[in-house]
């Protein structure tokens, strides 16, 4: 079940106070409409009933997809990050879950922690495409290294996986704006997945919950 609560929010435009519904847990299997609301950010958009101003409010919550066996904590502070780590560690010890799950096995679940809604979207797209986010992040790092080699001025603040019309690749952002993208050959992804077998095995034994570019850089640079 998804869990929500009501909080008071002061509209940044007209300064009036209104109720706003925030979710502590979003189960997209049981509440299938919620997935779209996460992707289009409706779940985080406050529309002021008075002045109609729309504001995005981010908060800590758990994204849970029972079908794909995915749990992703979206955290907005380091404190919440530590809590999410502890929560995942506890789930492992309890085996049967900790109440959030209503009983299903947590074994075989991919557990992740993300620090932005963009990162959460990216994870959802990756898992929907049936890919391994660890391989995708390593691929992303290789793409960035290659782009920098061919153009020393290349600089991206953010890079995200995309999947559209059967094509996959990465989109690059600078100062919040998309300025370019590269397509990825699925065969190259498969090759990389094979070459990264050691990294993946190591991660399987001691799973990391934060799988991002930083994690991938570390893996790549730790290699001979
Ligand atoms: Zn207002």
Features:
alpha+beta; binds zinc ion; 2 domains; five-stranded mixed β-sheet; 224 residues
Set down the secondary structure blueprint.
Layout: E1 3-10, E2 17-27, H1 33-39, E3 45-47, E4 54-56, E5 61-65, E6 70-74, H2 78-94, E7 110-114, H3 117-128, H4 133-150, E8 158-164, E9 167-174, E10 177-184, H5 186-195, H6 197-205, H7 213-222
Helix pairs in contact: 4-7
Zinc ion is lined by residues 11, 13-14, 16, 48, 50-51, 53.
Could you explain how this protein is built, in words?
The protein has 224 residues and is of the alpha+beta class. It folds into 2 domains: 3-128, no CATH class; 133-222, no CATH class. It has helices spanning 33-39, 78-94, 117-128, 133-150, 186-195, 197-205, 213-222; strands at residues 3-10, 17-27, 45-47, 54-56, 61-65, 70-74, 110-114, 158-164, 167-174, 177-184. Helix 4 (133-150) packs across helix 7. The longest helix has 18 residues, at 133-150. The relative contact order is 0.10. The protein binds zinc ion. Residues 11, 13-14, 16, 48, 50-51, 53 line the site of zinc ion.
